[in-house]
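Hi U.,

Before I forget, here's the chain from the pilot set. I'm dumping it here mostly so it's searchable later in email.
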Amino acid sequence: MSAAAHEGNHKTQSDSSNQHVKKSWRVHSSSLPGRVRIVFSGADQSASHEGIGLGAGIFGGRLFGTALDPPAASRNISPAAGLQQQQRPHKSSKNYSKKFAKFLEETDSDWDASTSSALEKAILASGGSGEKTIRSISVLQQRSPVTLSNSPARSVGSSSSGVGGGLVTTQPETTSVALSSTEKDALDPTEEDTMNPRKSLDAVNASKKAEEESRMLGEIAKLNTLSIRFQKFKLLLEQPNIDLEQVRKLSWSGIPDEIRPTVWKLLMGYLPCNSDRRDATLTRKRKEYEEYVAQSFPKGKATDEALYHQIHIDVKRTNASIQLYTHPAIREALERVLYCWAIRHPASGYVQGINDLVVPFFHVFLAASVVGKVENTNVDAIPKEVMGNVEADCFWCLTKLLDGIQDNYTFAQPGIQRQISRLKELINRIDAPLFNHLQAQGVDFIQFAFRWMNCLLMREISLKNTIRMWDTYQAETDGFSDFHLYVCAAFLVKWSDKLKKMEFQDIMMFLQSVPTSTWEEKDIEILLAEAFMWKELFHNSPSHLAGSTTNGGS
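Structure:
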């Protein structure tokens, strides 16, 4: 055999051996063991991430930390040493390979899967051998500890429903470290990496894991925020004389579910701020309502059957999609509240739409007397006394609400007419192109905005989101009248781009069924923030708005 042929065969065998080694490392060393623990340092209790190896130092381990001790194999056997053992086998190499492979198989589920691609990149970058791989892995193993950038622990107070209690510590979604040129060379992907289906699947899994961790961190942050707010409310409500102005400031951004019934009664002026007078006031008010019911339903029948029949029809249509409000006992309670109010306010009497306004009060007050979600309550199991108290509290809070917007429901409803006129001026000033388009299509604001004013947007927004919105309304001065106007303006402008592409029929159909079914609390908060902005700009400058109609198209 010629020298050239002998050299070619030797080269082929060497390449085959190298490929075998690469495959072996990819199969058996896809994850590198490491140790991860959370360390709190200093008075500020900031968290740091400390560990050994690729899985700990660079890629952060698991979200809440694991504790893995590095085996001797991962510390003492380098990729280069592995190559030498393959090329010069000795009697113990097979036994060691089996033991190491078995160790990897048994513990692989405990290692961070994100280290797989990094180790493979390091080996492929060096061609399966050489000083570069050893140096890269050595540098990565020595980089410890790594300090997290957003790690301060947050103290959480106690609460009755999981909002508070204990200490919730958040960890970052990513760990930021400065890599040396050697580390970058070891971690840079090669063309073979991008073509590997297994690595593509690993990348997808890593992305899903990152999204899940981000969601968990968001929930933890939300719990921390709710707990802090709960503690602030609790401190205020425990005072012998409550500072109602401070309660309003806190309530603007939302009220915790656990204390919403009490806060609403305070903000509506139903409960006194002095704690010594509250029990006596509740007892007296509830007794008065019982007397009103007895007077309005002598011998168990309504004194005005026509009025009661109209209320009965409207209540049957009230929140019919929620099973709770289809129960006969709940409907009868709502009917009594509305009928007693109408009888005692003959100047306005009952107007269709008022039936919607009693529901948020009923929902919130009933929630305080049941366990679990109020929608799933077994109404038949509610004691009669509890239902009577909820009914009475609703009556008095509804009365307080309607006292502030009573001209919305008197003859010809002048309050609503006035609100619609102001809304028209606002839209002309805020979004003139939308205003001009509606005018060009012959759309009159009263055709869609009347219901917005009459029912306070309750037909457009879910009950849950309405309750959140009413937190802010009650925190505002004249929230159900003046502030509601700016909420309606922000609500209409929100759909401006879509409406400007529609003709009359499509506009009316859209505004009769606005797509808010997927709205969450954050959408309501954005709407309220925009309304607040418009109010700050225009509420104290009525003359500035007065001339706007003549400036725009009409």
